[in-house]
Write a structure and sequence with these properties.
By secondary structure, the chain is mainly alpha-helical. The protein has 3 helices and 2 strands, in the order ββααα. The chain has a two-stranded antiparallel sheet. The longest helix is centred in the last third of the chain and has 16 residues.
Length: about 70
């Protein structure tokens, strides 16, 4: 995975290599082919939510990171 800071703000663009089956899952989420409601309409929001869930699983304190200016 490679992160590149964009010139138009404090956004980092991520390029990642994923397995084809994971790309198919993301496509199904965006096409609303799952029975559960989808709250977001973009890959970046899906990845943000996935990162937050994984951080929670690992026990990372996201509020501490956000309050220190790290996110």
């Amino acid at each position: 995975m490679i992160g590149t800071k964009r010139e138009d703000g404090n956004i980092i663009q991520i390029s990642a290599t994923i397995y084809p089956e994971h790309a198919q899952i993301i496509e199904k989420i965006l096409r609303k082919e799952y029975s559960k409601p989808v709250a977001h309409q973009s890959v970046s929001e899906i990845l943000r939510r996935a990162i937050e869930h994984y951080a929670d699983f690992l026990g990372v304190n996201l509020e501490k990171i956000k309050n220190s200016g790290g996110g």
